[in-house]
Specification:
The protein is α/β, with parallel strands linked by helices and about 300 residues long. The chain has a domain of about 210 residues: P-loop containing nucleotide triphosphate hydrolases (Rossmann fold). Helix content is about 35%, strand content about 25%. The longest helix has 16 residues.
Amino acid sequence: MAEEQTGTETGEKSRGYHMGSVDTVISVEEVTRQVAAIAEGTSAEQLDAMVVGEPFVSIEKLKAGYGKMEILHDVDLRVGKGQSLCLIGPNGAGKSTILHSIFGFTNIFSGSIKIAGADGTMQDVTRLTPSEKLSQAGIAYILQDKSVFPGMTVEENLWMGGFLKDQPTEAKQAAEMVFDKYPRLAARRKHLAKVLSGGERRLLEISRALVMNPEVLLVDEPSIGLEPRFIDMVFEILDDLQRRDGKTIIMVEQNAKKGLEFADIGYVLVSGEVAIAGSGDELLANPNVGQLFLGG
């Protein structure tokens, strides 16, 4: 539903989506219509050009959805090893469905999802189960908020992240490595997860995914529900994982400005298709993207 308000002093209006402090709020349907109108169209060659080196994750002509409903229509995606990609767009555009498809939560009607193996050759992981994606392909999914086990301790939550390890001792060893990396969690290892702050819970969610030492992190709305100071902390953690540890990150972020400032590559989705693609900086400087998603 659309709602319009005019500034009381200047009468000026500003437009934006998911920014929270604008004078004019436009409906999802109107945003979708406007994004479709400015869609630039993308080719596989254009997407390849934004990759540093060879693609590490590659999606080709993916059609996917839930049940018999197709949400994604011939989606292509490329990201290199150690790069980050942020997906933005209006609600219902298919952003989270891309993450769900990569991890094995959707029905794949056609197309392929590939990830580079240890020898550099692309491995088709389209039909692997989520457990196989994590254990065999090194793909981890970091869910939206409230995915920790509140009645378990921080330590026990981390152990749960290693549920696919061959031996429980391996999960415990991996958890200790996480504690070494994040002293803030180590100081709370015996605390119940439900007493953690919002930022600490998000750190725990990210850290739990690291127990399996994945190569690819699928991060769904890392800033949702967090205070600004915790949002900065979470993005600093993600930056460290990418820049220092070489993780490849594919992210959906409702705070478009924050996501594009972080990411090497950005895609704008509309109605299950990639409408605009470019570097994070290019999309931040794109006036059409700015008007619709960055508040002016």
